[in-house]
UniProtKB/TrEMBL annotation:
Residues 1-19 form the signal peptide. Residues 48-216 form the Aminopeptidase N-like N-terminal domain. Its EC number is 3.4.11.-. InterPro entries: Aminopeptidase_N-like_N, Aminopeptidase_N-like_N_sf, Peptidase_M1_aminopeptidases, Peptidase_M1_dom, Peptidase_M4/M1_CTD_sf. SUPFAM superfamilies: Leukotriene A4 hydrolase N-terminal domain (SSF63737), Metalloproteases ('zincins'), catalytic domain (SSF55486). The keyword Hydrolase applies. The lineage of its organism: Bacteria, Pseudomonadati, Bacteroidota, Sphingobacteriia, Sphingobacteriales. Residues 341-472 form the Peptidase M1 membrane alanine aminopeptidase domain. CDD domains: M1_APN_like. It comes from Pedobacter flavus. Keywords: Aminopeptidase, Hydrolase, Protease, Signal. This is M1 family metallopeptidase.
Length: 553
């Protein structure tokens, strides 16, 4: 039975983290590349503001509305590209009260202006669209709309955009590297329900035909992947939280039928999550829009200032500890994982999804930091070790650039182990904590590359990490520490994909007193005291490597 649960833990973790794009045809691959690449027709303009205004027909599962783009031309231009799922129909595109000509290739839409838009000019156009959006089969790992009902028969609807992007349901420039400075989301639904989106609720409007419009304003920069909505029969309450930068508004939205359970659970779990993460990562990055948690018809997602929550108000992941150690049953996994994404993922965003290890690795390591903050350092380390069996080390955790392709599912747990090793190499935990604060201060609300993050960490830590990052991020296999004892002499070396690999490592013979080595790819030797039992040799478990005892030929 214990083995069954262990396998179940690993299977769940793999399911959670397996966001790989499934097999697609050559035509679809081309469409993915056009959508995921910063093409010249996407690079020539910068989105400043969106106004998304939609009407949802919940019975027929249809969407209709408009998306207004306000943008700045980065060069003289006559054509640009945006994105919209090919199964959604464009009625027209308007510019200065005229209809624009456009063409479509897969999910890419190309529009032509009737005049040259000069560099530095600020313009706007509006896309009117409608159709039947893609339905999610297994959200959040498969993106699309979720049309469901609560236990009382009320509509319970949301969207999952993971790895497919915001363009699966609205017209947008679907790239992580262009965040709109602000976004207004207007949603019209039956008046007996409520609609929630990112940001702050600015107003509501009662309309004819028993309809109501909700207008949500995002005051800070946001990318289209994070733009979301929830519709249902909701209860709402707010609290204030004393955070590192003052009063932070906490906004809670649960189904009415679950409100008593939700309030008890969230009122306890959310403040302690924020306390731990602000300690380790720095001030919450979205003070203007606040923190919001919304019950969703799927297990959860990290949408900015509107985290999706479907963890059934349980500890762990749906009541299960993904590490298999029991430590994860002390806290709500979805709140911590997706809460951490407000720092890494939503505020600090990878320019290309190929570098999404930044989001997923740091947010997974935040689980370790939360366990340490609430249960002690040993508990945090044990939780991290428990995640390792889920790592396959078959593909690199950095994906293919300009192809809308994330790295392997290992980017979660392996990414967390990479960060943990850097902490171990730094020796000083307070210096490491300040490094995390510095990352979130320096790159707040920006889009970055993996190289930028790597260079920042190397510079602030004072460590030579070039070969370390190349081995762990850009190669699949782990470093192998080969060693042998001949009498009381330890012979050792690294076997790696990266030449001249130079990761220092620590070892012990008694489980507590560690000695340090600086192995290379060449064999080296070290004499061991005659009274030492060499059979008790162990590497420091904080290093995620493969120890291999060999016999040299």
């Amino acid at each position: 039975m214990k083995f069954f649960f262990y396998v179940f833990f690993c299977a769940l973790f793999v399911l959670k983290s397996n966001a790989q794009t499934p097999y697609i045809s050559a035509t679809e691959l081309k469409s993915y590349a056009i959508k995921g690449k910063l093409t010249p027709l996407k690079a020539n303009y910068d989105v400043n503001y969106y106004h998304l205004d939609i009407n949802l027909n919940l019975e027929k599962q249809l969407i209709a509305g408009s998306s207004q783009f306000s943008f700045t031309a980065l060069e003289d231009l006559t054509r640009i590209q945006f994105d919209l799922s090919k199964n959604l129909k464009i009625g027209r595109i308007t510019f200065e009260n005229n209809n624009l000509s456009f063409s479509r290739e897969g999910d890419a839409v190309f529009i032509s202006f009737p005049k040259v838009i000069k560099k530095g000019s600020k313009e706007k156009f509006t896309v009117i669209y409608e159709g039947a959006p893609k339905i999610a089969r297994n959200p959040p790992w498969d993106g699309g709309m979720i049309f469901s009902k609560d236990n009382e028969g009320n509509h319970f609807v949301s969207i999952s955009t993971d790895d497919l992007g915001g363009s699966i349901w609205w017209p947008t420039k679907d790239l992580q590297n262009d965040k709109a400075d602000s976004t207004l989301v207007s949603i019209t639904i039956p008046a007996n329900l409520k609609a929630i989106s990112n940001g702050i609720l600015k107003s509501t409007e009662l309309l004819s035909g028993g309809l109501k419009k909700y207008n949500w304003l995002v005051n800070e920069s946001i990318n289209s992947h994070n733009t979301t909505f929830y519709i249902g029969s909701y209860a709402n309450w707010s609290e204030s939280y004393k955070s590192l930068q003052g009063k932070l508004n906490l906004d809670f939205w649960s189904l009415k039928e679950d409100s008593i359970t939700a309030k008890k659970h969230w009122d306890y779990e959310v403040p302690r999550m924020l306390t731990a993460l602000e300690f380790w990562l720095g001030p919450f990055p979205w003070y203007k829009d606040g923190y919001k948690i919304v019950q969703s018809p799927f297990v959860g997602a990290e949408y900015q200032s509107a985290n999706a929550y479907g963890n059934q108000f349980k500890k762990g992941y749906l009541g299960i500890d993904l590490s298999g150690t029991g430590i994860g049953l002390d806290w709500d996994y979805i709140l911590v994982q997706n809460g951490a994404n407000e720092w890494f993922g939503n505020s600090i965003t990878a320019k290309d999804v190929a570098d999404n290890w930044i989001k997923d690795g740091f947010s997974t390591y935040a689980e370790v930091l939360f366990a340490e903050f609430t249960q002690g350092k040993e508990a945090g380390n044990t939780y991290l070790y428990g995640l390792r069996p889920s790592i396959k080390n078959i593909e690199p955790i950095i994906g293919r650039y300009d192809a809308n392709q994330v790295g392997s599912k290992d980017r979660y747990a392996k990414g967390a182990n990479i960060i943990h090793m850097i902490r171990e190499l730094m020796v000083d935990d307070e210096k490491f904590r300040q490094l995390l604060h510095g990352l979130n201060h320096t790159y707040k609300h920006t889009s970055v590359t993996s190289k930028e993050i790597e260079n920042y960490i190397a510079n602030k830590s004072g460590l030579d990490l070039t070969k370390f990052f190349n081995q762990y991020l850009r190669n699949a296999r782990l470093p192998v520490f080969e060693y042998e004892f001949i009498n009381q002499v330890l012979n050792y070396r690294w076997v790696t994909d990266v030449k001249d690999f130079n990761l220092p490592i620590a070892f012990t013979f008694n489980g507590k007193d560690y000695q340090h080595l600086k192995p290379s790819n060449e064999w080296q030797s070290m004499s061991i005291d005659a009274n030492t039992d060499i059979n008790q040799f162990k590497l420091n478990p904080n290093y995620y490597v493969i120890p291999k005892k060999v016999v040299k030929k």
